[in-house]
Design a protein that fits this description.
Layout: H1 7-12, E1 14-16, H2 17-21, H3 25-35, E2 37-42, E3 45-51, H4 53-78, H5 87-94, H6 98-105
Parallel strand pairs: 1-2
Antiparallel strand pairs: 2-3
Length: about 110
């Protein structure tokens, strides 16, 4: 719903604060639920942004994913080759053979 927001979407999603003062809050909220967001203007300046619950959840999920990406990248930067073990070495240490894997995959 949110994704990339075009300039036209932003302009079309603007609403004047005076609509709230005229008792049209319910209609504005319906528009928010349909469009995902509305930018409320007061004196021709953006005052706040109204988000639908779905849009808020979508943005929150993107932030969580972004934070996890940053954390993963930082962990990868701090690691060195000595921390990693090849598949062959791991199998040898655990006593697993190729035959064991083939038996497991065939089930």
């Amino acid at each position: 719903m949110i994704g990339a927001i075009a300039a036209g979407d932003f302009v079309n999603s603007s609403v004047s604060i005076s609509r709230f003062n005229k008792g049209q809050a319910g209609k504005v909220f319906q528009e928010v639920n349909k469009a995902g967001f509305k930018v409320v203007f007061k004196n021709n300046r953006p005052e706040c942004i109204l988000l639908s619950p779905q849009a808020f959840e979508e943005i929150n999920e993107m932030l969580v994913d972004y934070r996890l990406l940053i954390e993963a990248e930082e962990r990868l930067k701090g690691s060195c080759e000595a921390d990693f073990v090849s598949a062959e070495e791991a199998m040898k240490e655990l006593g697993i053979t190729e035959a064991d894997l083939e038996t497991t995959n065939s089930k």
